[in-house]
Every structure is written in structure tokens, then in C-alpha cells.
Amino acid sequence: MTHTLILGGTAWLGREIAQQLVEAGEDVTCLARGDSGSVATGATLVRTDRRASDAYDAVRNRTWDDVIELSCEAGLVTGALEALAGTTPHWTLVSSVSVYASNSEADADEDADLAEPTDPAEYAHAKVAAERVTSRAVGDRLLIARPGLIVGPGDTSDRFSYWVARLALASHEPVLVPDAHGRAAQFIDVRDLAAWIIAAGHLGLTGTYNAVGVQRELADVLAAAQQVAGHDGELISADDDWLVAHGVNYWAGPRSLPLWLPRSADAFFQRSRQRFLESGAMERSIHETVHDVLADERIRGLGRERRAGLSREDELRLIGELSER
């Protein structure tokens, strides 16, 4: 039995890691406030505010095989390192491909230039700073995982699940999509990412890895979502200039089309995964992921208010305007 401390563990990825560890018969402790949700059944929650001076008192004198850090907030990252780094044989930091300075070069690997962390309020800058301070404290015991877009059941960002949910909701009616020609899409199922993080910890794997899925065509992703959803209506494609002119946003957030990026940033979805594959990473099929996402979306409500995407009413209005051109 291994003993793993997850710094966090009550939100999406952290809970999936904890759940898989528990199911494998491992000992799992999650150090968190618990505001993001409950821990996986069988895991131990140490409820604490990581900003408190005594935040790590309950865990600092235990022997951990692996510590998994999910945060990039400077105070939380440094506090954990000061308390635990000196006695932990393996440390995993979950970072992001957002750390890279440029998204203009397809197939760029882990040695590509990073953003300079001048603004800790910026997500990418905070992730770079977390990598640097952790590397200084942990040295050659450190594993840095840089996932791209994480998808799968339970995702609340709607950056992937929007499409299969919208196609299922529309059924026989049209759905507005961006011009997918020549556009890439790259993502990793949360369950596959969690499984790799766990296996890497057991193996003592160190170094930096782009934890990303296979590079796909956006058109193929939309087609898979359409097939799984049983949608037989028309996909109405709009070009970038028209969408932007009509106030539709790239990528995520209100009034957006998820997975749609400016063509200048297309390499964000084309990161090299060679090192990740060589480490033993496995990936389930896109149809399995989309099927499970749709099942989860049906439970939560296909027509619910979303953090990303268009409302159905707004979408139909835009389709009407597009047809009048």
C-alpha cells in the first residue's frame, strides 16, 4: 500500500485521482478546505485552510510516498514545499500547457520557451512560477505534468461538453459551429490523466511531460459528438470574421463557441506528446469519452445555463441572421 497526500482533492481532477487510488486499495489523504466538494469515499479529508500557519501540522510528521500539488497559488505552493518537500521522495506538480510563451509552433515539446511570470494574477504566469519554485525545492524528485484541455464526465467548464449536449438538445434542428476546416483539437480525458499521474508516482517518474491527447481535427471531434448525440440536423458553419463581428467569443466563457481558437493559436491544440507516450500513457477512444460526457450531461440537464457556449435562443437567432446574408 502506498501513502499519497493530495493537496486539494475535493474538486474534479483531484477527486478523480483520489477515487482511483482508493479503488486500487491505496491510502489517500486530501488536505483541503473542502469547499469544492466531498472527498472520494474511502479517502481521508484533513480539513484546513492552507493559508493558516498550522495548515500542515496534521500531515507533516507522516511518511508520504507521493505528494500531489494541484494549486498554482504562490502562498499555497510555497507553504506546502516548506512543510513537506524535505521528507517526500516523490512530488507531483500538476501544471498546464498554458505555461508556454507561444502557441504558434505545431508539435512544440516540453523544451519550448515558457512565459515570463511577471503577473501572478495571470493563470499561465502563476503556473510557471509554481514550476520554478517547486523545482528549486524538490530538484530531481519532481514530476511536472502539463495537461492541455481536460475533458470528461463531471467537467463544469463546458469547454468540451457543450458540443455533445447542444447536439443532443437540438436533435433534428440546426446547430451553429465555427469553420472547422484545418483546425485542430487536443484534449485528455480526466480519467486517463488521473491514471497516468498515479502510475507515474508509483514508478517514481520525474521530469516534465505534456500530458495531452492525440491531435485531432476539430471537424472529426464535432462529427463524433454528432454521432453520439444522434443529431441529424444541419451543422451551420460561420467564418471567424462573422462570428467575431456578431459578438461570439473564442474558446470559453459566456457567448462563446468552445474549442474554437484563433488560427494564430491553433498550435495550442498541437503540442508534442511523444515523451508522454514513451512514459506509458494510455488514452481511451473519443467515442467513449463523448458517450460518458453525454450521459453526465443528461443528468445535469442539456438545456441548463452554461459557463461556456451560446444559449439555444441566442444560437437560433444567430443562425437566422447568418441565413439572411
For the structure shown, list the relevant keywords:
325 residues; seven-stranded parallel beta sheet; two-stranded parallel sheet; 15 strands; 18% strand; NAD(P)-bd_dom_sf; NAD-dependent epimerase/dehydratase family protein; Epimerase_deHydtase; NAD(P)-dependent_oxidoreduct
- Helix and strand composition category: alpha/beta
**How would the global form be characterised?**
globular
Distance between the termini: 65 Å
* Beta-strand share of residues: 15-25%
Q: Oligomeric status of the shown chains?
A: single chain
How many β-strand stretches? 15
Largest sheet properties? 7 strands, parallel
> What fraction, in percent, of the residue positions are helical?
25-40%
Summarize the structure.
Pfam families: Epimerase. With 325 residues, the protein is of the alpha/beta class. The protein is 35% helix and 18% strand.
Walkthrough of the structure:
35% of the residues lie in helices and 18% in strands. The chain has helices at residues 12-23, 74-84, 123-138, 161-170, 190-203, 218-229, 240-245, 274-278, 286-300, 312-323, and strands spanning 3-7, 27-32, 44-47, 66-69, 91-94, 142-147, 149-151, 175-178, 184-185, 187-189, 207-211, 216-217, 235-238, 249-251, 256-258. Helix 2 (74-84) packs parallel to helix 3, helix 4 crosses helix 6 (218-229) and helix 6 (218-229) crosses helix 9 (286-300).
Please outline the helices and strands.
Blueprint: E1 3-7, H1 12-23, E2 27-32, E3 44-47, E4 66-69, H2 74-84, E5 91-94, H3 123-138, E6 142-147, E7 149-151, H4 161-170, E8 175-178, E9 184-185, E10 187-189, H5 190-203, E11 207-211, E12 216-217, H6 218-229, E13 235-238, H7 240-245, E14 249-251, E15 256-258, H8 274-278, H9 286-300, H10 312-323
Parallel strand pairs: 1-2, 1-4, 2-3, 4-5, 5-6, 6-11, 7-10, 8-13, 14-15
Antiparallel strand pairs: 9-12
Helix pairs in contact: 1-5, 2-3, 4-6, 4-9, 6-9
